[in-house]
Amino acid sequence: MAQLLGFPLTGFRFKGKSRSLMSICTAFKEHPGRGLHPSQIARFTGLPIAQVNDRLNGTPELFVRLPAREGITRYRLATSLASLGADDLEALVRKAARTETLTLYGIVAIVIAVVTMGVVMAFPFMNFQ
After folding, report:
1. Are strands 75-77 and 63-65 parallel, antiparallel or unpaired?
2. CA distance 79 to 24
3. For residues 58 and 39, what is the distance between their CA atoms, to the nearest angstrom?
4. Contacts by 89-93 with C-beta closer than 8 Å and gap 24+?
5. What are the residue ranges of helices labelled H in 36-78?
6. Global pTM value
7. How far apart are CA 28 and CA 62, in angstroms?
8. CA–CA separation, 124 and 58 (whole Å)
9. DSSP SS3 for 50
């Protein structure tokens, strides 16, 4: 994924994906102490397996990839998040989504400001006849 100064340019990890991330987190909370395969998580949540796999790989701060045992890769909820309650976990995901939204708005505002400055600076050199 292309990034500019650490900010994603082509997609966001939390913005618009809060519901599916919370479903995956709930599946991990319902099965504590177990590493789950993406197909198991897809079965528990009802989400497509491709979407589950994208969310698991795209948010390493939430989900930890366990070493492959017997050729099967499993995931777990990050240790720092496993002890959080459902409300705290939801607040964390919403805060991350809000941060990405504010980053998007900031980048759009900067682009608009630069374009506006270019137009204003070119304005005195225009001939009105």
Report:
1. antiparallel
2. 15
3. 16
4. 89/22, 89/25, 89/29, 90/22, 93/14, 93/18, 93/21, 93/22, 93/25, 93/62
5. 38-45, 49-58
6. 0.78
7. 11
8. 48
9. helix
**Cα–Cα distance measured from residue 9 to residue 45, given in angstroms and rounded to the nearest whole number:** 29
Per residue in 75-129, pLDDT (tens digit) is 999 988 888 888 999 999 999 999 989 988 998 999 999 999 988 887 776 666 5
Per-residue model confidence as pLDDT tens digits over 39-87: 999 999 999 999 999 999 988 889 999 887 788 889 999 988 888 888 9
Pick the CATH number of 9-123 from 2.60.40.10, 3.40.50.300, 1.10.10.10, 3.10.20.10: 1.10.10.10
